[in-house]
Predict the 3D structure of the following.
Amino acid sequence: MARSLLPLIASLLAVFNAQAQVTKDPLPTRLVCHPSDNLTANISYEASGALLGAGVYATSGTHECSVQSQGAGVAQPDGSVRFAWTDEVEGNKRYQAIVKRVGNEGYTLALQPAGCGTIALPAAIALSIQGKACKAGVDRDAAFVLFWRQLREAIARRDGELLQRLSLPQLEFSPDSGTVKAPASVIRNAATCIPGIVTTESGTDIGKMLKAIDTPQLDKPPLSRVADNRVSTGAFEARWTAQGWRLSWFNTSPAVFSTCKPG
């Protein structure tokens, strides 16, 4: 009897260790400050301090404007980080956000040109973790970017252990009809099959999405924010947990995963 329990105990310990490994990685932080009633600024950064993005929301009368950096920042000789992008919402306008560290817990954000739409902005905006008008919390959008890249890496490396760590304990599947569930262990050998799963509407597969998009935006196709804690691509969904985003649903049958052949 004792011997028969050994494989089960070993399996449970493996799952526990895998989940523990995931929780060791701190989630990105989003610092939001309100310098005035009509201005909100934000920056996102990793636990290491590496900056991930910056943005501004401004209002003036009946006008409002929001811009958020896209892509990775580039370190500058003076120690600042520059984000440069073309904002499609603002008529393909070119923006730069220059973020510079001030002391141990402060930053300055300069948007160039110094305006959001038709609304003029200060030349520089101060942000501080200790500021009365500032609040820091987990940045779910930035955390999804990290999750997306981990998923892409896991598939490329055929890393079944990482795929399981990036999944909820129970996964949902939608075969021809209805919804069925299966334990996350079914994904361990599915790395070669996941890229071929397609969306219900456009027919785009997961492999093409992961290859084409490096910095996914949760409100921009093919992604959609179904709820505050749920994101869908049409081919798979992810849910927010205390450890970050985790795979929760696939637009296929679990039988596809269980019969998947290693690459």
In short: The helical segments are 2-23, 140-156, 160-165, 206-212, 254-258. The chain has two domains: 29-138, 141-258. The CA atoms of residues 49 and 199 lie 36 Å apart. Confidence is low (pLDDT under 50) at residues 5-23.
